[in-house]
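Sorry to interrupt, but I need a hand with the structure work. Go ahead and set the record down below:
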Amino acid sequence: MGRLNNAEFLSQFAETLTKNNGESSVYLTQKRLVPSLDVEDNKGINDLSSNVIDHKLFDKNTQEYPILIRLSMNGKNKDKLKLSTVVEIDQLDQFWIDYAQTIKAGFVGLKKKDKKKSKKKVSK
């Protein structure tokens, strides 16, 4: 499936969590989306650690990148699902708010970890 816009991704994400009901694992990944390099123009790229040049010679990278967010689920009975969206920098704050609310609403079936009872110390 291709990339969805942010609203469609969040609505399908919420629907997936509701239908899943804790039966299958849901994997969420987030990473910086970097434009791909043209292989023909960069034939001489060698990024081995022995070829690293002192970073003080280069300017810091201040470029801002969009974020790629993916959801994948390998469910039972052929319920495999893959969704993805790209969030631009100017939409990021609102997306995180909506994303967090969707996660909180969808993971209601999780149970809290049981705390171990501590043993009472015997005084002498």
Observations:
- The longest helix spans residues 6-20.
